Each structure stands twice: as structure tokens, then as C-alpha cells.
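[agent] plan:
  1. take the single chain provided in the ticket
  2. run structure prediction with default settings
  3. attach C-alpha cells to the ticket
  4. add a short note for the reviewer (M.T.)
[agent] executing step 1
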Amino acid sequence: MRVIGAACATSLAACATYGERTAEAYSAFEAGRFAQAESEYADPKTTDSAFLSGAEAGMAALTGGDFAGAQTHFDRAHEEVRELEDRALVSATDLGETLLSFALNDTFKAYEGEGFERVMLHGCLAITYLAQGQLEGAYVEARRANKLLESEEALYEKRYAAGGLGHFLSALAYEMLDQPSEAFIDYQRMVEKGVGKELAARAMIRLAPRLQRESDVEPLIATFGGDPARPEGAATIVLLAGVGAGPFKQEAGISIPIDGGKFVQWAVPVHAVRPQPVSSLVLRLAGASESVRTTVIEDVGKVAKENLDDRIAWLAAKSAVRAALKYELTDKLEDEHGLLGLLAGDIFTIATERADLRAWQTLPDTWQAARAFVAPGTHQIIVDADGGSSVALGSFELSPGETMIVFARSLGTRVYAYPIGGRRTDTPAAPATVPAVPTVDPASP
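[agent] step 2 finished; step 3 output follows
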């Protein structure tokens, strides 16, 4: 009875949900106080999870434009799940056995992320490498993200409409390293998976003549049109954006009365979506008549729901086993201690059968991207949120063939954007360090 009492006390003391424990940190993040959010999430007591501490703090830093700080936090999260990832990359069966491992309550275990969250972690790491001009690191992380996705697909025997972020980042890095054939393969995989298809198809059409692969893109030209004319020696501006706020978890459970006043408790997490006031972002140049709108390359909210739905069968099996064991325990306690034992068993069941609501809450609802080809020279760059605010980044000079990246994130109706590359020709509103980004051969398409 003393052991039961201790377990009940521990469970009831920790009954605050993940959302409740992190409410202050998430509120700071949502309000744009990214340094505060980063600091609070970095404190292990906030999340009670080393993986989520690194992931959440990393996203706060990334959204605030601190790419080096974000990388440090994301690396910390990766260290917590490296062993699990290595097993997953060797065998999906090993990953499944890990998911089915018995626990008194899922919330008592160290949280190692949902499968899609581990995929997203490496996508985010790729962004931090890309933002710091470390192109090899970017495509290494993007490759790992896609390998982990393939492991999840093998485990659940399905194909997710996912992987667009990893493939796009990998392709972008390869183009900037002047390896168009490798970039073409990544774009081709995006088209095959149906993620960011229009953006990827146009990139394939653009690269095909240089690779003598015109016949491979004839079906795409029929759908999307030919390669449009670009300014001579065109520079490139790529807008990469996290749009909106991703889903969070809620508990779905049912108590089933059985003979003798006893019952069994069954609980699993389900995803709940947040309102998304901004649907996309627009990249435009001051004084120009044309603009480009982002397209979705990764639907995080959709993939998160599908991935959790696929895992529900595993969770339900675990929950059913626990319910049966707790029923037997309650029955035994009643035999030995009468009504007091029955009461203790019921309290123990309620206290220990809780759905695990831990989740990476600062992820965006979607990852989106757009690409603009502009004449070399000086341009004033503006990012608009469709349904929200705008941000003027300032004036930047771009050389022929240069690639500039703009990383952006929308939260509510506000948009935050950070230029990477180019040479600023006006005075920035606040001091900022903009790392150099390699350029491609000006003669390349």
C-alpha cells in the first residue's frame, strides 16, 4: 500500500500537462519575445524533457534570427535521441519494439519525440547550417531528415506526403555548391512525393537544359509551362518561411465501469489545431510590379496528425495492457484491504493512466518557400504576410549569379524576417551580422 501511495502522490504532483507547464514560455514565444522564450525553454524544469528543451529553445532562437544559438540547442536535442535515431536508421523493426516497450505511464519515460519531430529537428538543423553558409552541413542534415522519414514510412507501411523541407534544403545547398545534377534529383523527389510540386517542377525545368535532361521534364512543361526568361546574370532570392503555429496534443480517454464498482481507464493523445490567420507570405521588391508567393513544401500539421494516428495502435496496445494489470492490482487490493484497497486501486488507476501530451509546440503549421530571379544590383526587399503584417528588410546589393536567402516566420498576424547574404546598402534598424553566402557560377541558369 505504501508503494501505491507513493506512486499516486508522484503522479498527482506531476499532473500538470505539458501545455500548462510551458504556458509562460510559449506566451513569450507567441508574443515575439524570443530571447525570453529561449531562456525559459532552455531551463530543463520548464519542459521536463531534455529533447523538448533543446527543440523548443532552438526554435525560439531560430525564429529570433539567432542561427548559431539555435544550432547549439538543436544539437543538444539531437544528443538525447541519437541512439534511438541510429537504431531507426538500421531497422524500422527495432524502432517499433522501442515504441512498444512497457511503462507504467508514458509520461514517466524520457520523451524522445514523435517520429516526425525527429525528422523536423534535422530539417531545422539544416536551416541553421544554411544560414551560416555551411552548405555541406546543410545537406548532411537534410539527408538525415529524409532517411528518418523513410524509417517511419517503413514502420507504418505507408508513404507520407512529407520530406519537402529536407529535399528543398538539400537541393538549394547543392545548387549553391554548383552541383545541379544532385539538386535535380532532390527536386525530382519532391515532385514524386507531391510536396512543393510547383516550386520543384519549375526548378527541374530550369536545370534540365544544363543537364541535357529535357525529355525528363516534358510532362512538367505541359503542366507548368516552359522556363521563363530571367534577367541577364540574374541573382536569386529564396524566401524560406515557417508559417503559423503547429498543432498541440489533447487527451482522449474513456473510463469503462466493470463488475464490483471497478473500472479501467484508457487514454491516448490526439492532435488539436490552432487558428492560422496567415496563409502564405509574399516576397516583393519596392517599386517592382511583380512579386512571388510562397508555396507549401511541408505540411507539418497534417504530417503530425497522420504520424500520431499511425502510432495510436501502438499506444492503445500499451494502454490496454496497463489497464488489465491495474485491474488485477485493484482486485487484489480489495481482497486484502477491503473498501480502502478498492479506493486506493481506483485512485492509482486515475493517477497513472494519463495520455502523454508532450509535443514540440513551437513548430510552424507549414514550411513554405518561394524563389525570385532579379537583375544584379540594389533592391529594397519586403516580405508581406497574406492576412497579416509586412516587414521591410532594407536595401541589398546582389552580384550576378548570387543567391540570397530570407528566413521568415509568421506568428499570428505578425511576420519576422532575416536576410542572409547580399550587401546592405542602407543603415539597418538594429545591428545584425549577415554571414556571407557562396554564389553559383553566373553562367548557370
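[agent] step 4 note for reviewer: The longest helix spans residues 300-352.
[agent] ticket updated
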